[in-house]
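Go through this one:
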Amino acid sequence: MRLTANLPDLDTALATLLYRGTAALELTPTSGQQTQLLAYLALLCKWNQAYNLTAVRDPAAMVTRHLLDSLAVAPWLRGSYCIDVGTGAGLPGVPLAIMFPEREFHLLDSNGKKTRFLFQVQTALPLPNITIHHARVEDFRPQRRFDAVLSRAFASLADMIAGTRHLLRPEGVFLAMKGARPDHELEAVAEQCRVRGVHPLAVPGLDEQRHLVELSLAATDILNPH
C-alpha cells in the first residue's frame, strides 16, 4: 500500500526514516513488519482526511510522533495480554501489535469513528492479534484481566488508575505515556500505587520530553479492589 502514489521518492524517504528510527530504538522489525507499519501509516493518512483522527498531517511527522513514539515503550512492555485504553487511532496499540505478533492487544475507545478506522486496519493489514472494543472504559468488563494497561495522553495518572484498575490483574502494570515527567501526578497516586519506574524515552527525531510511567497497584488495593 503506497503512501503517495505519485511521489515514490517520498515513500522511500518515509521507509528510510522508519528504518533508521527503529534501529535507533534498537528494534529489528522484519521487512514484513516494516511494510505493515507503513501500510498502517498510509491508512491513517487516508482516513485522517475525513475522520480527523490526528492533528498531525505530515506523513514524516507521523512516522516520528506516532510510529516511533509508540515503539519507544517496547523495552518496558510486560506480559502477553495487553490493553490500550483510549487508543484513538490505535496508538500505541497498533504499532506494538505489529512489532510483537506473539502478544495479544485489545484496543479500547468510545469514539465510533476511531473504532471503525481500527476495524479497517485490522482487516487490511491484517492483524489477528488485536481485538477492538467500542466502549467507555468504565463500562468495559473483560472476561479476563490484563498483564499491562497502556495509555497515551489519557488524562491524569489518578484518572487513569481510577478508570482502569478493574482491568489490571494483581501482578500487572500500568504503563502511562507522558510528556514531561509528571511529578505532581505521581504524588497524587502515591498511596494507591507503587512506582516501578519513570523512564525517559528518547524518540528518534523528536526534540521533546517523553516519559513512560510504570506503576503497579499497592498491596492494599489488590486485597481490597474497588
User: Anything to note?
Assistant: The CA atoms of residues 66 and 115 lie 17 Å apart.
